[in-house]
Write the structure tokens for this entry.
Amino acid sequence: MVDRSFADLALAALYDALNPWGPGDDFYLGLVMSADSVLDVGCGTGRLLRRARAGGHPGRLVGLDPAAAMLVQARRHGGGVEWVLGDLRTWGRRAGFDLVVMTGHAFQVLVCDEELRQALRVVHEALRPGGRFVFETRNPAARTWETWTPDRVRQITDREGRVVRVRHEVEGPVVGDRVTFAETFDCDTWPAPAVSRTTLRFLDVDALSGFLREAGFTVVDRYGDWARGPLTPAAPEIITVARRASHGSNTS
């Protein structure tokens, strides 16, 4: 197995190549550019906020991520953005952001009910009254995980010209709304493959709405794709735009 610190740095350096800029990024960039202050939770390499600053965003931009290796990449390229190591469990600042976003399906790593409730409480506190929380989750009705099979191998090239092979495999049976999978990265010049294991939660619309309502949010828009198409059983995404109520959370 590859040394963990080496793997973290290597995978962070590959992140943007694995996840090239696309329609989802354009969707979020439009929201960021229209908000005076933005908190990006799970900002990764920070490319969304870096693009916003480069595009002339004049306000406060804060990126929060628990992976130090990701923030190494963000700080390497991102002047004028505040990068913070941590997550919503450690975020202790109450600041009146106009917009909080969670991109890249980061919301789905909130696996336990209490973890999810705590995260929503913190987001609620981070927003000014009337501020928006926007995130996406994969639509469980589309059963995306059934395509995560080891025979589907992607190849990408890193900055040094090395070819890295990437494959996914679901581990064990799906348990309720939780799916555990392994993501394996392999390169001929590495001593061994790097393997990342993750459990994601696939909440449906009713469950999402219940958690948001309990935390003091009102859902104002829902889309099934990045073109703002309707949410149907076949839609790949559940894209949620929620607004913080003018008063406190219902969970006090």
